[in-house]
Design a protein that fits this description.
single chain, about 100 residues, mainly beta, Rieske Iron-sulfur Protein, six-stranded antiparallel sheet, four-stranded antiparallel sheet, 10 strands, about 0% helix, globular
Length: about 100
């Protein structure tokens, strides 16, 4: 069964940017790419680097600590040293409420 997390009064990131939000105590990186929003866990699976502070390019985010790269749509690791994917969320925006599902 899918988990739904509602986060009211969120300031959404501008186009091409990322913002960290907290989802039930878990840091989540919220990306705005094109007309869509995507969300993945904000901690790199290698050593916990802050993915919300990484470089975003072509739908990928690069961890600023050791260069692991993840797909922002799926959470899949594209380049190590990370060996595990990060969790990805489906994103919906309802007025000023961010709705995450996983």
């Amino acid at each position: 069964m899918a988990e739904t997390i509602r986060i009211p009064n969120v300031t959404l990131p501008a186009e091409g940017r990322v913002r960290r939000v907290m989802a039930n105590g878990t840091p989540v990186a919220l990306f705005h790419i094109g007309a869509e929003y995507y969300a993945i866990d904000a901690r790199c699976t290698h050593v916990g680097g802050p993915l919300d502070r990484g470089m975003v390019q072509d739908g990928h985010v690069t961890c600023p600590l050791h260069g692991s790269m993840f797909d922002v749509k799926t959470g899949k690791v594209l380049r190590g040293p990370a060996a595990r994917d990060v969790s990805a969320y489906r994103v919906h925006v309802e007025d000023t409420t961010l709705v995450l599902e996983r």
